[in-house]
Amino acid sequence: MNIHEERNDGVLILGLEGRLDAVSSKMFEEKVLALVDGGERRIVINLSRLDYVSSAGLRVFLVASKRLTPAGGKVVLCSVQEPVKQVFDIVGFYSIFSILNSKDEALNSLR
Amino acid sequence: MTRTSLFSKTLVLIVVLFAIIATATSILSGWNLYRNLTQEYQSKGVAIAKSIADSSVEILLNADVSTIQSVVDQFTEIEGVSYVIVFDGQGEPVSHTFVPAVPGDVLELQRQTRTHIFNGGSLTNNLRVEGMGDFLDISFPILAGVAGYVHVGMDKSLIRSRIWSAVATQQGLMFAIFLLSVLVAYALVNRISQPLKQLATHAGRLATQDFSEPVTGPSDIDGLPKKSRDEVGELAESFITMERTLRQSVRELKETTAAKERIESELKIAREIQMSMVPKLFPPFPLRPEFDLYATLVPAREVGGDFYDFLFIDDNRLCFAIGDVSGKGVPASLFMAVTTTLFRTTAVRVSRPDEILFLLNRELCRGNESCMFVTVFCAILDIRTGEVEYSNGGHNLPYFVSHAETRPLRNTGGMALGFTEDVTYRSEKIMLRAGDGLFLYTDGVTEAMDEGENQFSEPRLEEFLQQANGSSATEIIRGAVDQVRRHSAGAPQSDDITALSLKYLLPAGETTRESIVVELKNNLPEIERLARITDDFGLRHQLNETSHNVKVALDEILTNVISYAYDDAREHIIVIRLSLDQEKWTVEVEDDGRPFNPLNAPEPDTKQLLEERPIGGLGIHLVRKLIDELEYRRQNNRNILTMRLKVKEA
User: I want to staple B456 with a disulfide (CB 3.0 to 4.6 A). Which of B169, B448, B508, B631 is the partner?
Assistant: First the structure.
């Protein structure tokens, strides 16, 4: 999996590409936690190019959110594609995350 | 050539011999004759001289010369007398027969004679007179030399000519004898060399003769032993004997060779017949995808006593067997033929392996005068379920080969067939899951020896089978035979090598579309490999959406197994079976980790707020949601999770 970093008006945008499974989620988790520890508070995770996610990946989203919320931060997900969307539906992510349709919407929601 | 050289040698011998004899006898008889004649002449001469001397005394005293002359003349007519001369007391010749004058040599001799003292005897001298020849001169004194001397000359040339004529006669005789000898020798040599030549010609012809053909008419040397009862006859006799023996040997050799060839060709046919008795067409049931079967039989000699067989006894049950008849060669192969025939007819009549063996044994015992026996392993596979029921009659126990292990089947304790009628057999059952297999073999495999008489042995076979587990039945059999051959490289094959490999692929169902087995190692990157395989599988059947569900479910289960199931750090194999029929996917995950039933995990509350959500527990929740049917069982110390998913066509 590849992670693309991008910054827009104080918001960190992480673009995920490929598979987010037990192997890649470890790397992703370390990265996110390092960023949060480094002071990042507003994070958009762009999933437009994520093909696949397993529970290990879902766990990282949960971990990131749980870390940011008490610190007054927020993580927003956007542009979820079909196979991933199905998984999000099953685990009820739509009720606990703000998941928006586009990167712009996500950026606006954090401004 | 033989004759010429033999005769010429004999001729040279005869010539030399005769030359020596002729020379020796000529010299001897010539010398004898010379001596005798000389003596005779001498005594003759002495007699004449004496008589002249006696009769001359008066005459000389009376000096009647003319009377003496007539006496002298009278003696010259006697054969051999050449001359007669009478000297007076003064040494002057009184009367003689010389014409015209007395030679000087005679006068000289007279002068010497006068000094000789006679003592009443005579004196003999050899005298040579120039122009007259050689003489034997005998002188005799008249009145002791007072009245004079008489000399009588005997002609020596007469002696010589007599000797010559005698020798010539003798030589003529010798020559006649010589000629006769040559003739006789010629005849003799001919008598000996003729049969020899005949033998030589015969021997020459013999070399080019075809001894395998019968004799056409009497041989040309048949009469020889009778004709010549000598060494040549003996030679001919042994020649005839040799030829007869030779012909007989050749005929016997020809017969033996013909018999051997006949037996060999019969054995070849027997082998073909035997090989046609075991099924050789593979795959044997191309329309049955539920299993993969391959077998081989490599006889040690032309024909052997091993066999294997398999047949469907009804629509869903495959009966298969392997056997080994005691002994080798033709008797074993005949017994093998009987056994396979009986096996086929028995197998379709009764459908339990123990009963098959029971009946087979009873039939084989009947009229088994030669007390042969056969070990048989017989099994029946239900291709719908993978259940195998088997029974063993004294045969090497086949191996059960799965991803987890390679082990011999449990023995059912039956004895070999053909000993005694009242034997019963027991049967056992074993379940084959997709990917599991059975390896049936005869002791020719494990007891194959190398040049150092080391057997291939069970551990080597087990090691090979475990290694080759993922391969097809054909590859396993070929690999096993190859291993055995490599082991016994160069050493002659001591026993038939027979093996049958059966792999169960998937539960039978006419709707089955595809079935695959994947082995994974216990590390996380393997999951992505499986994901690609699953994608491909889905793509082949246009099941993209369903395959995503399978992929995620497998990911969750395997991540769990790989991360938590193993207490050690060793490598483990996890077996995944994917199969698809018209209605559903069936996915099986089998691992040898610690017992764990994922279905017992608590359901997470997905309605909970983020702050209250526990982080774990999502995986199994996903699986439950993605898969229609889940089933867990613990079997043979292994976790087996079966997932079924209704097919949604993309």
Answer: B448
Residue B223 vs residues B162, B199, B227, B239, B495: alpha-carbon distances, Å = 56, 11, 6, 12, 60
Q: Are A17 and A50 in contact (CB under 8 A)?
A: yes
CB atoms within 10 A of CB B73: 13
Q: What is the CATH number of the domain that holds B123?
A: 3.30.450.20
Same domain, B398 and B531: no
Taking contacts as CB-CB distances below 8 angstroms, the residues of chain A near B606 are 90-92, 95
Closest CA to B578 of B541, B610, B615: B541
Q: How far apart are CA B450 and CA B493, in angstroms?
A: 9
Provide the CA B437 distance to its chain's centre, in angstroms: 47
* Alpha carbon B567 to its chain's center: 67
Mutate: best of A33, A91, A97, partner B, most B CBs <10 A? A91
pLDDT digits (tens, 9 = 90+) for B480-489: 999 998 998 8
Q: Indicate the pTM of the whole model.
A: 0.51
Query: CA B299 from chain center: how many Å?
Result: 24
Phi, psi (degrees; rounded to nearest 5) at B318: -105, 120
Structure confidence by residue, pLDDT tens digits, B278-293: 898 888 888 787 899 9
Residue A59 touches chain B, beta carbons under 8 Å: yes
What is the spatial distance between Cα A71 and Cα B222, in angstroms, rounded to a whole number? 134
On chain B, the residues whose CB falls within 8 A of the CB of A58 are: 618
Domain match, B533 and B554 both? yes
Considering only CB atoms, B625 lies closest to which of A19, A54, A90, namely A90
B374-382 and B584-591 strand pairing: unpaired
Q: Do B610 and A62 touch (CB under 8 A)?
A: yes
Q: Where are the beta strands (DSSP E) in chain A?
A: 2-8, 11-20, 42-53, 74-78, 98-100
A55–B622: do the CB atoms touch at under 8 Å? yes
Task: Give the model confidence (pLDDT) of B49-67 as tens digits.
Answer: 888 888 777 777 776 777 7
| Contact assessment for residue B124 and residue B137, using Cβ atoms and an 8 Å cutoff | yes
Query: What are the pLDDT digits (tens) for A26-78?
Result: 999 999 999 999 989 999 999 999 999 998 899 899 889 888 888 888 999 99
Same domain, B480 and B599: no
CATH number at A2-106: 3.30.750.24
Q: Do B496 and B623 sit in the same domain of this protein? A: no
Cβ-defined contact of A54 to B609 (cutoff 8 Å): no
The count of structural domains within chain B is: 3
The yes-or-no verdict on residue B407 having pLDDT over 50 is yes
Hey, is the C-beta of A34 within 8 angstroms of any chain B C-beta? no
Rg from Cα positions in chain B: 66
Q: What is the DSSP letter of B91?
A: S
